[in-house]
Write a structure and sequence with these properties.
Radius of gyration: 25 Å
Oligomer: single chain
Distance between the termini: 34 Å
Number of helices: 4
Low-confidence stretches: 1-33, 43-50, 589-617
Strand content: over 45%
Helix content: under 10%
Mean pLDDT: 87
Number of strands: 30
């Protein structure tokens, strides 16, 4: 996928910064790089700790949720102070759907998380579940002595059927509070229901809207942890049994993934040969490639090659104040189309989803939600898997090192494709789904293991094409690219103190085409962060330093456009421009011309939509 001119310009500026002279004398071992447990010392060199310093608002740059022009019905569903909650049961609350709203047809439903904190604390991963279904995976911000606040708003309309029934809300945020780590997270969770202006129900096959039933593929309460499965190594397999209604005609598995401890920075992990040759201890290994594998009744049905989310304390905590890393406040979930396999699971019997992570170290948190569309007539469906191809990933490692210095190129690719039909009262629907992945990680180790450079690209593409009885096509094509460039150099200052220099480029891009019946939606997202930081670390405390971050966000679609360019340095916003104009290259109203900038398979899908529509006219 080609980069935008703005992205290339920012990347060029970043490379200019990267190649400025830096102090490179060093004696620290590799194990000190990318430590996940760095935390800021509240000293004047980092922040002004005066009583009149206002509370700091942290934020993740993302497009606003497009809302209808109706007044929402809003409900506070949980208010809680998360103090010492580590290894304790999730906080529970009774959830009741809105009963006093003027309408029960909702065009949009929004989850809002607002939290404040003050003092010193690590970043903490947390999850929000409703009836065992995960609806938010997120990371807390690291507080300062004068206090912080942050808000996450997430469109949860796809969970509509779940939100219309009584459920148990569960929130797990494992926090530690003692004399050193004093930050308590004061949290409000609200849900906003926006009534639709017209009725949303109809009798047609509902392939694009929210599912009729959502089944949790997570651990059951009671627990002293989150409801996610914990995958601790490369041979660990976690699974959940389920039963699907016999009138299902579509199914999508939504997978949540996050990585921690020895695999928090898996993309920087070294090959085992390098570690053993140099007799290193305490160094994360198994190389830099990871893959989440999903199996249904023992057969692989899909995979996730995850976006490299960097949490708010990751790499250099000073980079993420107040602009946080892409995806850190709202971790992405990943959809895997299960519809081609429905014929084998709509039999009224128990079936099983299982999860594993290739090359995993401790620990990965993985769970999923099975979204199911039901035949409203109650007719039992039937189906058949026509073809399924799932080749094992081809993983290549080229190593060239002497002692602690050298370079490594890791590359991999995989494809998964399935075709199957399902017969319901809507007729016979044939679904063709494909996932294709490409991975490249070039790593350089220098200065006797004190310098590390990682240049990585993940391409994660998927398509779903459903041929309807009317010969029209429901299709979704998504083309994602996750670029990462990371430079880190450490210099020993003596007395258990080190100086760290970090430069980072992190990106998330997606081209997407969705088509159904007589309409289509084309969208493009280009989200790029550049960050530079220097910090003095004593033990695991950041005692001084500076962190700067620049971000360019551009979302274009045939419905609306949004852009934001923002930069910060040490808690201060230096520049912030927001607008709703489309980029010059995005022209969704020119018919077939709009396909020219899309990947070939997306062009083909869009052409097919126009052709089908022409036949119907």
């Amino acid at each position: 996928m080609a980069s935008s001119p703005l992205s290339l310009l920012l990347f060029s500026l970043f490379l200019l910064l990267l190649h400025q002279p830096l102090s490179t004398s060093s004696t620290l071992p590799k194990s000190t790089l990318f430590r996940p447990n760095l935390i800021s010392q509240p000293t004047p060199s980092i922040t002004t700790s005066t009583t009149d310093t206002p509370i700091t608002s942290y934020f993740e740059v993302t497009k606003p949720i497009k809302l209808p022009h109706t007044k929402p019905c809003s409900y506070l569903v949980l208010r809680h102070d998360f103090a010492y909650t580590y290894s304790k049961p999730p906080v529970l609350a009774n959830y009741t759907p809105p009963s006093d709203c003027p309408s029960q047809d909702f065009a949009k439903i929004v989850l809002e998380w607002t939290a404040t904190s003050k003092g010193r604390q690590f970043d903490r991963i947390f999850g929000v579940w409703l009836g065992g279904v995960e609806i938010l995976r997120s990371c807390t911000a690291e507080p300062r002595s004068t206090g912080i606040i942050w808000t996450v708003q997430k469109d949860i309309t796809r969970y509509h059927s779940l939100l219309m029934t009584n459920q148990t809300l569960a929130v797990y945020l494992g926090n530690l509070v003692d004399n050193t780590y004093t930050g308590v997270y004061h949290v409000d969770i609200s849900v906003h229901f926006y009534p639709a202006t017209v009725s949303l129900s109809n009798g047609e096959a509902n392939l694009g809207n929210s599912a009729d039933l959502i089944l949790p593929v997570s651990r059951n309460l009671p627990l002293n942890d989150g409801l996610w499965f914990e995958i601790e190594n490369s041979t660990d397999v976690e699974s959940k049994k389920f039963e699907i209604p016999r009138n299902a005609y579509r199914a999508v598995l939504e997978v949540y993934v996050s990585f921690h401890e020895n695999d928090e920075f898996w993309y920087t992990n070294l090959p085992n040969e390098y570690i053993s040759t140099n007799n290193l201890t305490g160094t994360a290994g198994n190389g830099a490639f990871r893959e989440v594998v999903v199996r249904l009744d023992g057969s692989l049905v899909g995979a996730v090659w995850p976006f490299t989310v960097i949490y708010t304390g990751g790499v250099n905590p000073l980079l993420w104040r107040p602009i946080t890393g892409i995806g850190s406040f709202n971790l992405p979930s990943y959809d895997i189309e299960i519809t081609p396999f429905l014929g084998s699971i709509v039999d009224g019997k128990i079936h099983e989803f299982a999860f594993s992570v290739t090359n995993a170290l401790n620990v990965w948190y993985v769970d999923a939600n099975l979204h199911v569309w039901l035949d409203k007539t109650g007719m039992e469906t039937e189906g058949q898997l026509l073809s399924h191809t799932s080749l094992e990933p081809i993983i290549s490692l080229v190593s060239n090192f002497t002692g602690l210095n050298g370079n490594f190129l890791t590359s991999s690719s995989r494809s998964v494709s399935s075709i199957g039909w399902v017969k319901s009262s809507h007729g016979n629907i044939t679904t063709n789904t494909t996932q294709t992945f490409n991975f490249s990680n070039f790593m350089v180790m220098g200065n006797d293991g004190n310098l590390q450079i990682v240049n990585q690209i993940i391409d994660f593409n998927n398509s779903v094409h459903a041929l309807m009885p009317t010969s029209s096509t429901h299709s979704i094509e998504s083309f994602k690219r996750f670029p990462l460039y990371l430079y880190s150099n450490s210099v020993d200052q003596g007395n258990d103190t080190s100086n760290f220099v970090t430069n980072l480029t992190l990106g998330f891009s997606e081209e997407r085409v969705a088509a159904s019946g007589f309409g289509f939606l084309v969208s493009s997202l280009k989200n790029l962060q550049n960050a530079q930081g220097i910090m003095l670390v004593k033990g695991n405390l950041v005692v001084s330093g500076i962190g700067s971050t620049q971000q360019a966000y551009q979302y274009d679609s045939s419905k609306f456009c949004y852009f934001r360019t923002v930069s910060s340095s040490n808690y201060t916003i230096l520049y912030d421009k927001v607008g709703n104009t489309c980029s010059k290259k995005f022209r969704p109203r020119v018919g077939f011309g709009l396909a020219k900038g899309l990947p070939f398979s997306a062009q083909r899908a869009l052409t097919s939509v126009f052709r089908d529509n022409k036949k119907l006219h």
